[in-house]
Amino acid sequence: MKKKILSVLLVSSLTMLLANSVFAADTPTLGYKWSSKNITYQNDGSNTVYKALWTTGAKEWNDATVVTLSSGTNSNFTAGNKSVANATWDGIMEPVYNTNKTFKSVKVWVNSFYTSQSEYISTDNAIQSIATHELGHALGLAHAPERTLSVMVPATFLSDGTFARLQYFPGIGDENSVNSIYKNSLSPSQYGLDENDFVEGKELVDLDISWSKWYLNLKDLARDADLVVKANVTAQNGTVVTGENFYDYKQKSEIYIQEVLKGDSALLNQKVSLYQMGGEDQNVVVKYHGTTPLVENDSVILYLKKTGHNEYIPINEDVSIFKVEANEQLINLQSHKIISELKLMEESTLQ
Known about the structure:
Blueprint: H1 2-23, E1 38-43, H2 48-64, E2 68-71, E3 77-82, E4 89-97, E5 103-111, H3 112-115, H4 118-121, H5 126-139, E6 155-158, H6 172-183, E7 203-214, H7 218-224, E8 227-241, E9 249-262, E10 271-277, E11 279-280, E12 284-288, E13 299-308, E14 311-314, E15 321-324, E16 330-332, E17 338-339, H8 341-347
Parallel strand pairs: 1-2, 1-3, 3-5, 6-7, 7-12, 10-14
Antiparallel strand pairs: 4-5, 4-7, 8-9, 8-13, 9-10, 11-12, 13-14, 13-15, 15-16, 16-17
Helix pairs in contact: 2-5
């Protein structure tokens, strides 16, 4: 009987150990950090509700790790909220990097266009998780894989409507990585950002995002798209800046619509404008590691959100772009998975 009990306990312990090794894997890092673990941020929340989000998020990281985030006056690290309707993100970090692997400045934002919606308000901890997530980026964390127990998973909701960020406060893997960043030397960036990305005389920004939704399948992506088209890129129009923030930098392309798979059929054989995140001007280079700029003559299938008259953005950037290869197979720019056009149509239920 004792042997049986010991055997059961051993199996249970091993099961728990294996489970923890899966869900508590250390969170990937950006390869950048603040020069000190004692960090002052400026709470620019527009009202007491948004100020409280950042205050609570800072406390969660303070309680869990070796860093101390203190609210005060610091224009080089601000936390606030903006309403941005023409986007599919609900939170974003705008970091300016130094060449010595430290942050020069950081702005983190919660997108109140999304957080004012009923889905967010009615889901416990959804809005708080965005602020805590963005502060995690501001400490040097990258995204954790989806469906892990980390506040750093890349989206707030899954496309089936369920809350994606089950760990709405720092998880063990998040804690381990932040502690390692501020106790030890930095590990390489998950995204491969290095000195070659810096342009002399220009600041370097590499955006980090919390998406509103993480898409589980093409059917859900097609459902949410205003327009799904097969198109050819006819021109690359360079960088346009639509506002005062780095997330307002967009790379504009002109696309010619060869086939309308969903949406306004009147757009067939018409040209529309496509805007991807990032860009460059005389002062700054703005990147987002989940954006692959399209170039002239690219043939693509796109799942798009309408932002204006004949103006569109790809939903979640590379997630919704399928490039037509020479063999007529399609490659998704985010996952790099190959799929046939017929299979894409079937999975999107666009037939």
